[in-house]
TrEMBL record:
Signal sequence annotation: none
Main localization, broad class: cytoplasm
One GO term of the biological process aspect: tRNA wobble position uridine thiolation
Similarity-based family: Belongs to the CTU2/NCS2 family.
GO-annotated molecular function: nucleotidyltransferase activity; sulfurtransferase activity; tRNA binding
Pathways involved: tRNA modification; 5-methoxycarbonylmethyl-2-thiouridine-tRNA biosynthesis
Protein name as annotated: Cytoplasmic tRNA 2-thiolation protein 2
PANTHER family (alphabetical): CYTOPLASMIC TRNA 2-THIOLATION PROTEIN 2
Record's GO cellular component terms: cytosol
Organism: Pseudolycoriella hygida
Keyword list, A-Z: Cytoplasm, tRNA processing
Tree of life domain: Eukaryota
SUPFAM superfamilies per the UniProt record, alphabetical: Adenine nucleotide alpha hydrolases-like
Primary role: Plays a central role in 2-thiolation of mcm(5)S(2)U at tRNA wobble positions of tRNA(Lys), tRNA(Glu) and tRNA(Gln). May act by forming a heterodimer with NCS6/CTU1 that ligates sulfur from thiocarboxylated URM1 onto the uridine of tRNAs at wobble position.
Length: 395
């Protein structure tokens, strides 16, 4: 058995390649079925006990916070990939259960078409939209579609969206903003924020009380580390929280306590069809970004030291608690792009960074003029977003 010493404890590795060693055992929980999975720090389990455990974990995180009330309208963000498929399937399971266990809510699903970012032909885009349509059918929820390039935030039923085309000027506008001189880090940060704003706006348009997104433990570890490096430490509390209250509609992350091994087994045992891994992804587009470097680092930890991921995530959660108390005092209002609070006092690190930027911008006069021409009011942006708009072309 492959094992690894972490935190002074001998930990069984729960990666797929280790599983066959447990397969002859009988599940100790039900004493009936054969073991199908061994998760770290847990007894080996059969498929049914595993699914009951993961679903319970999901229900418990939703239930214990009591944030989502009975009858709430929720917008579930779906991208066709494994994590959002798990979220949607868990909600479907809870929704179609008997009256006692049923989750009472009004579900809407949103697909954000990001084909405008990639050089997809109409045929490739249509083929992807059709594939998503087939995948969505399985869940039976009311679904909607919108484009990442659509600044008017038009939202159509998914079937209508499939027939519509993204307007050329909107695609060109988005591509121009992320031109060749814009760093991959700023482009990535810009797109992530645009995406979040679309989620909030569509949720608001559909009168949803909450939006549900599908980040898991390792995603939040990546977001936590990345946003610290991007100077977004002051708002990292919201970035990894169960409920992100920025903007007009709160965003809930109901599966943030799941890890990638649980996601993979949930997909496997339920035989859920998802978009192929080789399908184009945002991470490939902004290869040279800080976000991608952090992602590679966390992915490597996931392979070699999986317990470290939850240590980073839990540490982030604890630090966030402290940050909320001391630094998230919002005296300067909220950032008009990411809706984070703008603290009245800048940290010494940010002051030093701003000074350094000021000096380098004055060295390059052209660059400085370019910054001044912008239409974005910098005083209403947080430090992280100021950095995006210094880079992304807004003229
Ligand atoms: Zn069992
Ligand atoms: Zn901001």
């Amino acid at each position: 058995m492959c094992s690894n010493v972490e935190d002074g404890t001998l930990v069984s590795m729960s990666r797929a390649e280790d599983e066959p060693l447990y397969l002859d055992e009988i599940c100790k929980k039900c004493n009936e079925s054969k073991v199908a999975v061994k998760l770290k720090f847990k007894e080996a389990q059969c498929e049914n006990c595993f699914l009951a455990y993961v679903r319970h974990k999901f229900r418990a995180s939703l239930g214990s916070t009591k944030i989502v009330g009975r009858g709430a309208t929720i917008l579930i963000v779906y991208d066709g990939r494994r994590k959002s498929s798990v979220l949607l399937d868990m909600l479907r399971f809870a929704f179609f259960q008997d009256a006692y266990k049923k989750l009472h809510f009004e579900p809407h699903v949103l697909y954000i078409d990001d084909s405008a970012l990639f050089n997809l032909t109409d045929e490739q885009r249509n083929s992807r939209l059709q594939r998503i349509d087939v995948l969505l059918e399985r869940f039976g929820f009311k679904s909607y579609g919108t484009s990442i390039a659509d600044t008017s935030h038009r939202v159509l039923s998914y079937k209508e969206y499939m027939k519509s085309s993204v307007q050329n000027d909107q695609v060109n506008d988005l591509r121009a903003k992320l031109g060749p001189t814009v760093s991959h880090t700023s482009s990535n940060d810009y797109i992530q924020n645009i995406r979040t704003n679309i989620i909030r706006n569509v949720a608001s348009h559909l009168n949803a009380n909450f939006a549900f997104t599908s980040e898991i433990e390792s995603d939040l570890a990546k977001i936590f580390l990345t946003n610290i490096t991007l100077g977004r430490g002051g708002s990292v509390c919201q970035d990894i929280a169960f409920c992100d209250t920025r903007g007009n509609v709160p965003i809930i992350r109901p599966i943030r306590n799941l890890d990638i091994v649980e996601v993979e087994h949930y997909i496997k045992f339920n035989k859920i069809d998802c978009l192929d891994d080789e399908d184009v992804q945002l991470d490939d587009l902004f290869e040279k970004s800080l976000q991608n470097v952090t992602k590679s680092f966390v992915d490597e930890l996931q392979s070699n030291f999986p317990s470290t991921i939850s240590t980073i995530f839990r540490t982030g959660d604890k630090i966030s608690g402290i940050t909320v108390d001391k630094n998230c005092i919002v005296d300067e209002g909220n950032c008009t792009f990411c809706w984070s609070g703008i603290p009245s006092q800048k940290s010494e690190t940010i002051q030093a960074l701003e000074y350094s930027r000021f000096v380098s911008e004055n060295v390059s006069a052209n660059r400085s003029n370019f910054v001044r021409e912008r239409s974005v009011d910098e005083s209403k942006l947080c430090y992280g977003c100021k950095n995006i708009f210094k880079d992304v072309s807004m003229t």
